Amino acid sequence: MKDCFRSLSLSAPLLKALEDEGYRTPTPIQRDAIPPILTGRDVLGCAQTGTGKTAAFALPLLERLAAVAAKADAPRGGPRHPRVLVLAPTRELAIQIVESFATYGRHTSFRSTAIFGGVNQYHQVKALERGVDILVATPGRLIDLMDQRLVSLTQVRALVLDEADRMLDMGFIMPIRRIERALSKDRQTLLFSATMPPEIRELANAFLRDPITVTVTPVASLAPKIEQALFRVSRDRKQSLLEHLLATESMPRAVVFTKTKHGADRVAKRLMQRGVKADAIHGNKAQNRRQRTLEAFRNGSLRVLVATDVAARGLDVDDVSHVINFDLSMEPEAHVHRIGRTGRAGATGIAISFCDDSEVDLLRDIERLTRMRLPLRPLPATLAAMATVAADVDDAPRESSGRSHGRPQRGDRGGRPGGPQRGNGERASQGHSPKTRTSSQGHRPGASAAAMIDAPAQPRPNGMGARGRGRGRR
Ligand code: AMP
């Protein structure tokens, strides 16, 4: 009883919805945040996705709406203007939050809607006209609608900033401040963020009144149920390594992160050519296409989802077995968000990061922020074996990649930068012998095989990197 939702004083319609969902025990953030939110306190929550934070704010806010609605003097009739406003960084997250409100509030009569950019505003405006109690919005579209006087925020009594650090990263600080100015000061404010950099604290100081701080994991630390691994691999061999891992490891549902939209398309296309059910999701894809892709990933008809950081934000899919950082994230905080896609809802997840020479600084930033060193895994034996073949057959002088990166890996030998690589991973993952691989393809054996191995590992004589800096400890 002590550990169940009943002890949090939630009313029957919400408890029933939780029962429908099969939730038995509140997660730590729910246990700590729901009681103060129910009493109207402001909350500063340091929590990443996968901790159950959406229910941690949605449940008590629904409960408070119900309490107001039950009062004899509650306003009745007339258009319903939003009384809860949730700001989220991306449309995916906005949709997910609104779906959560709908799920948890399914036995109540509250209406919620999401508004976000990238689609025609028509249906969103219509939904607002019909009246909503809970509005979930991305800041840009909300400002657009405010400027057109198509939304009224005068009734808002609770503001939630979800994934606030990400909203700041995405440059939403001015819109957020403007939206806040349009709200009554007499409101409850909840701010959730995976990390607490100084800008977030500043925002919290400006927006929250005497908040209760709830931290479910230490700042920027990682969910304990995520096993991490690191491969040092050259850029042009990442695809081969990915294909090898997909062919050899049990990886039922993986999210692969790339730096660019173009990169996401390229990786997904090559996987599809290898017969792996994969698709890419990023900001250039139409909203309905993105939703379809997400749905296919959710229902298991896609094995691999290749995504950019922004597109994957808020992605809530249970049972993501692996997160593969094909490219390291530009911001160390994003690494924390990325790997939070796996290990959700109590499951154990695996996060594998590929790091090429140009990413050593990013790796260092990630390790500094998370205060842990990513465990280095040697390249798979098939890839390393290729290196031996390469060394045997290719006597051509090898160019250094020009960057120092310390500890060479097993099989680390000089490679010919830019050598042919397509087909290497395919062959490696098919498990042919190295000799068959090289000859069957008819490439110059050395070039082909060399393309399989990790980055050339000759440090420059002065040990300096390409940009003239000492880099990387690995
Ligand atoms: P969130 O951190 O809000 O994105 O939630 C992460 C996942 O945990 C979602 O799939 C939720 O449906 C699920 N979840 C949230 N709260 C609970 C709970 N108390 N018990 C089981 N699953 C939950």
Note down, in words, how this protein is organized.
With 474 residues, the chain is an alpha/beta fold. The chain folds into three domains: 5-215, 3-Layer(aba) Sandwich (Rossmann fold), CATH 3.40.50; 226-379, Rossmann fold; 382-398 and 424-473, no CATH class. The chain has 19 helices and 13 strands. Strands 3-4-2-5-6-1-7 form a seven-stranded parallel β-sheet, sandwiched between helices. A six-stranded parallel β-sheet has the order 8-13-12-9-11-10. Strand 12 (322-325), helix 14 (332-339) and strand 13 (349-355) form a beta-alpha-beta unit. Helix 2 packs parallel to helix 3 (53-70) and helix 6 (139-147) crosses helix 8. The relative contact order is 0.11. Residues 218-223 and 387-474 have low confidence and may be disordered. Bound molecules: adenosine monophosphate. The site of adenosine monophosphate has 16 residues, from helix 3.
Task: Work out the count of structural domains.
Answer: 3
Using the CA coordinates, give the radius of gyration. Answer: 25 Å
CATH architecture of the largest domain: 3-Layer(aba) Sandwich
Classification by helices and strands: alpha/beta
Heterogens:
adenosine monophosphate
Strand content: 5-15%
Q: What number is the mean pLDDT?
A: 78
Can you tell me the CATH superfamily of the largest domain?
P-loop containing nucleotide triphosphate hydrolases
Uncertain segments: 218-223, 387-474
Biggest sheet overview: 7 strands, parallel
Query: Helicity range of the residues?
Result: 25-40%
> Which CATH class of the largest domain is shown?
Alpha Beta
Please report the distance between the alpha carbons of the first and last residues: 51 Å
Q: Tell me, briefly, the overall form.
A: globular
The CATH topology name of the largest domain reads: Rossmann fold
